[in-house]
Amino acid sequence: MKNKLQQMLVITLVFGIISLIIYFIFDSFLVLTILVEVVSILMSGYLIFFDDRNATSKFAWLFAILIFPFIGILLFFLIGRNPKTRRFSKIQKENIRQLHRYLLEIFKQHPNWVDEKNPLSKELFYLSGNEALKGNALVSYADGEVAYQNILTDIRQAEHHIHLFYFIYKADETGSELAALLKEKAQTGIKVRLMYDSVGSIKLPYEFIDDLKTSGVEVRPFDLVNTPLLSTRMNWRNHRKMIVVDGKVAHLGGMNLGNEYRSLTDKFDYWRDTNLRIVGPAALEVQGTFIHDWIYFENNEEALTPFVTQMNHYFPLENLEQEMNETCQVVFGGPYDEETVIRDAFMDVIGKATRSIKIASPYFVPDNEALSAIRRAARSGIEVQIIMPGKGDRGISYYGNTSFINRLLSAGVKVYFYDTTAFLHCKYMIIDDTIATIGSTNFDVRSFYLNHEISAFIYGPSNAVNEVIEQFRVDLTRSQPVTMLERSRRPIHQRIKERLSEFFAPLL
């Protein structure tokens, strides 16, 4: 189908037609209702006894299926499949294993890059397989326009290849400007690979993509969803945003590619985001993440060949160490992994906090364990501060955030609403003012369990950590503290929206 949104309409129509056929065959709405109830009970039994997803999501699905069976069953067939049940071929699995082996071998050959002093980074290595690497020059950008211009500058200086992945790529002025630059570089012989999420970038016109391809840019959707039969994949999205130039410079963070991320939008006066520029060995780990995504769905034994045969270009090993000897550990994970890698890494660093935890996240919908970890830290005397958007970009996400506030406040967590004329989209966390995380990962169930995400863990002493600390200080000046008194005065319709959003946010 030309418009992938049509798949939702088609499946809904098919579901409705089947319901009508059953209704006319049995000539009784009561019989149809009984059949739907039987299906909902059977599906609930499957969830309870055979499905191994987290308890928060499982309870949300049970609630939806049992209380709203017609809608709940339809949603479950559309987006409810457990990602752990997805199967990949032996060739696909072997390609990923080979890529990981190549990367491990690179770092074994350069033990001087590995930071062995930090015991926490070693714990995250055992979780993720990625080492904390020294010798990086890191710069954290708190302004979307500044980050975007630096991305353009690095792309202009590319000599061999440019790799880009965006969850959302829009064909607006920003997207068109970058596309023009990518086409220009491709026509000079630079290898340009662009990947986008097929649902996040669902509005990206086919003509726009075809024009890039005609100019020599390799364009690929991640886990294409374009037929009704493949709709069960649409809830498992690749939320990463990353760029790698010549294997030496990398960018990652919360910014997608569109006008709003540069504050060129009518909906908000200002779009607050955080991006990280990496020059040094850690850029190789971002490169590895991009290649991992690029070959992920190729059922081809030669998928890795273009990269392996030119290792010196894609994984340059000379002159990577920078004068700024900052330590960075890149962690990535997704719904098909056996473990919840990034979530576990977040829980690990939170559990090590002794003085302070600072979090800024546009979507704060934790599971029970994550919420307990935050509350336990605050009750043990650790200063915990969380900044959320004062105005949301989506209703269910905004009210999902606010539904947790009372439990946070009651434990001593300090909660703040960001400027209501702006939107807080940055995703960062600071632990004891010595460790910072920047990436695509929201502090929510979707990022923890359903999305492919990437985050950089930066270990101090570090200029980049100091920059993020300063960003948090500035963000606080644009935020208002939330109080229990204020919460007690919220209207009944807001309370209802919060409770419903808390139930359904884990599904979406």
Q: How would you characterize the overall build of this protein?
A:
By secondary structure, the protein is an alpha/beta fold. It has three domains: 6-80, no CATH class; 90-117 and 139-320, Endonuclease Chain A (Endonuclease, Chain A, 2-Layer Sandwich), CATH 3.30.870.10; 341-507, Endonuclease Chain A (Endonuclease, Chain A, 2-Layer Sandwich), CATH 3.30.870. Helix content is 45%, strand content 19%. It is built from 20 helices and 18 strands. The protein has helices at residues 6-26, 29-49, 55-67, 69-79, 90-108, 119-128, 144-156, 173-187, 206-214, 282-295, 305-308, 311-314, 341-351, 368-379, 395-402, 405-410, 445-450, 463-477, 484-488, 492-504; strands at 133-143, 161-166, 191-197, 218-222, 242-245, 249-253, 270-279, 326-333, 356-360, 364-365, 383-388, 414-418, 422-424, 428-431, 435-439, 443-444, 453-459, 479-481. The strands form two sheets. It has a 16-stranded mixed β-sheet that branches. A hairpin with a 3-residue loop joins strand 5 (242-245) and strand 6. The longest helix is centred in the N-terminal third of the chain and has 21 residues, at 6-26. The chain is globular and about 75 Å long. The model has no long low-confidence stretch (mean pLDDT 88). It comes from Enterococcus lemanii. Residues 234-261, 420-447 form the PLD phosphodiesterase domain. It is found in: Cell membrane. It is a multi-pass membrane protein.
